[in-house]
């Protein structure tokens, strides 16, 4: 672009180039309407000018080119017929032109804009020139050479001659596409934030926002009000300790200290909440620190776990019954053996009774004939009677038959009691139990499962501290570990021989330790870290749910505050080690049993 382009607006040449540069600068600095006034005033003050091709004039013109082309906005000017007379480099770039000089003589219909856009621009030009009014900050679309449509913020003003005739138009526009996109994105985010806030406010899950300074609730959602029975206003006068009466402020701050110090970004806590009426329920609390309305706060998302705990307990009970179902054939065999010799012994006892009754009848006859028989005759009759009914043999065998029957009954009762202890949901209250007794009961009901596959060595320390907890659930854990060991041994040895299972117990660190070790094939180290994951199993479809060890881990860690660890040597065996505190934390499941006493009675337990 050069200064002569502007001169074409009036049909004559401007030689006072510094005035022209001042005017173009005014286009940006003081607005288009004032720029026109400067142009007109410059014509009135013109004096003698140097020829346009003088070296001084050319130097000033080059300066003018630099200034105009440095303007970041697009500047253009047209004649009365909307034919372009000039533009700056920014406008040329927008129009897909290499040099601003290429714009001279073109119209909007010659440029990349769409036909509709060109007609719109021309109509705006007419309105500006015919009505002599300035258009400021008009948003309009513009199609670029690449086909993309940009949003422009355009201002136009008419140019007039000394006779106050409109001789053309000058305009300036800025590309505000990115700004509008950013505004649209901001508006979308604001709408989404408002909608998300409404979703959170109406969520049935509890949301508590409380101050990091005094722990007082700043805000809560409707779910928190519904769960606690308090109104928003009441909760804003409370702290988390009011919902956890077993905690004081010092204990609570100690609990969330890793979050307060930035050691962790969030905390997950399982706790018990108390509502307005004093009812308690298990909850999971997810805590994180943030800012809310200019205050440093903690945000707690709280989920009621009552139903989850109930379902977990039903799953535990279902697996117990599944285990019993898998062991039922072996248990039936274990019961059948003592019942068989009980049946034989009862038959023999019946024979013995017949013999004894025969002896009694014979002795009665002898007694009735006592007056007519001498002593020798009576002794002979008695001897004949003893021989006839094999009294000496009966005397020797009768006691043994009764003793064997008692042993068979005891064995049967032992098996049934072990089954009942294992399968019965019982009272969901913590009670003291002997871990060694749990081991013996578990081995009793699982004997048929392991007796043909493995030898079992038991080394149980006596006495062990009494463990406070849930014995039926610990029985499930022990059974699962034993059965897993049998499976591993069978996978390794098949029918070629027996493996070995070692079970030991001892006192350790204020609690008791139970170790179950086998010489099976071990666990692949690549999956060792997943053995306690829910639904993870290496067994074929239909042979396992993948819930066994996951449930065992929850029972030991969550219900008893203990530890369950696994160590393995691939190809050489696995060791499970369970540690239980003698005084485990009081974690009340508060769950309904999935099998009632009546149902168990119907099953014969």
What is the averaged pLDDT score? 77
Number of domains: 4
Oligomer: single chain
CATH class call of the largest domain: Alpha Beta
- Strand content is 15-25%
CATH H-level name of the largest domain... which superfamily? Answer: PAS domain
From the helix content, strand content and strand pairing, which structural class follows? Answer: alpha+beta
Low-confidence stretches: 1-40, 45-56, 541-547, 588-605
| Major beta sheet summary | 5 strands, antiparallel
CATH topology name of the largest domain, in short, is Beta-Lactamase
Helix share, percent: 40-55%
Number of helices: 20
In whole angstroms, how far apart are the ends? 103 Å
**How is the largest sheet built, in terms of strand order?**
2-1-5-4-3
Radius of gyration: 49 Å
Label the overall shape. elongated
Number of DSSP strand runs: 17
Q: Any guess at the CATH architecture of the largest domain?
A: 2-Layer Sandwich
From the structure above, extract its key features.
4 domains, alpha+beta, 5-stranded antiparallel β-sheet, disordered N terminus, 21% strand, 17 strands, 20 helices, Beta-Lactamase, 605 residues, disordered C terminus
Walk me through what this model shows.
This protein is of the alpha+beta class. It has 4 domains: 4-174, PAS domain (Beta-Lactamase), CATH 3.30.450; 203-304, Beta-Lactamase (2-Layer Sandwich); 307-405, no CATH class; 429-588, Heat Shock Protein 90, CATH 3.30.565.10. The chain contains 20 helices and 17 strands. The chain has helices at residues 4-7, 17-29, 32-44, 55-70, 89-95, 115-131, 177-202, 222-228, 232-235, 240-243, 249-255, 257-260, 306-368, 375-388, 391-423, 435-445, 447-450, 471-493, 548-559, 597-603; strands at residues 74-79, 84-87, 135-143, 149-160, 166-175, 206-211, 217-220, 266-274, 280-292, 295-304, 431-433, 454-460, 467-469, 499-508, 511-518, 563-569, 573-581. A hairpin with a 2-residue loop joins strand 14 (499-508) and strand 15. Helix 2 runs parallel beside helix 4 and helix 16 (435-445) packs across helix 18 (471-493). Residues 1-40, 45-56, 541-547 and 588-605 have low confidence and may be disordered.
